[in-house]
Amino acid sequence: RAVPTARRPVVKFCHKQSGLAGDISIDNRLALLNTRFLQLCTEADERVRPLVYAVRLWAKQQGLAGNPAGGGPLLNNYALTLLVLFFLQTRSPPVLPTVDRLRDMAGDEDRAMVGGWDCSFPRDVASLEPSANTESPCLLLAEFFHVFGDFDFPERVISLREGRALPLPAPDVPEGLKLGPFNLQDPFELSHNVAANVNEKTASRFGRCCRDAAKYCRSLQYRRKSSKGRAWGLTRLFQPGAVEPGAANAGAFLISIPLDDTGGSQQLCREPGGRGPWFWEVCAAIAFVLSDVLKCDCAAAKKPRAPSEESWLAEDSVPSQEDSAL
């Protein structure tokens, strides 16, 4: 599937046998070097890869991440990966070196300039010194949520080049960098904000979800197995929905159906045969549970014809068994 409106036109594809998705782009050396940089980081420390996967899965389950074609308000996997790498750069002692430090370590064979940007870094992970940081992956994950739960994204630019957050306005922020509610600078193309598509609502939700996750990571439910058979530890963290400790629905898979006072069940009964818009929203929610949660095979049925005006239900009547069956 071609995406000509992307920042750099790509063809997106999915390998049917494995389900793996990929992109094809031509003459994009920056993307190639970015990939090699990410590979170097994952080889530099064995904690990087599981931490990146954990954050990406958590963000996906919270509805914060995706790969929208041609833009959208969600964080993409590349932005989340850079956010984790930046976090690891800022630990004391650091888990990963800054991009500036990597540039200083690069040999002559590692030098690369693309579009005026210095993309130099060692290609051989053996050139990097092992980190003196001994924090466990679970502790790092909890600290990730703690750090970004109160992070002021609109007033700072996250720089992997320097390994610090640059306050705004800053004289060293390059011209052309699109600033917004979430500012995350590409490690090489410094005028590119990889989270420029994120809107204020998503940025605010990201911080709130990080705070909830940090609170959960401090709870007993995160550290101890539940005596009531509820999901606990990382399992609970990676389930959809809020993870506030002690919640009555902890471990439950919740799907919200908007049957409120303004429309709700009363409106459902006022619709002809009880099969108006609200009815089909309920059906869609139940179909989601059957197909995506319980993994049942579901076939879509044709919507029935709207009944005549005489068959409308009275406001205070109760739908028949046939009408109320989903």
TrEMBL record:
Domain PAP-associated per the UniProt entry, residue ranges: 139-192
Region annotation (Disordered) ranges: 302-326
GO CC entries: nuclear speck
Statement: the UniProt record of this protein carries the keyword Magnesium: yes
InterPro entries recorded: MTPAP-like_central (IPR054708), NT_sf (IPR043519), PAP_assoc (IPR002058)
Required cofactor names: Mn(2+); Mg(2+)
One Pfam family from the record: MTPAP-like_central
Alphabetically ordered keywords of this record: Magnesium, Metal-binding, Transferase
Protein name per UniProt: STPAP polymerase
Species of the source: Ibidorhyncha struthersii
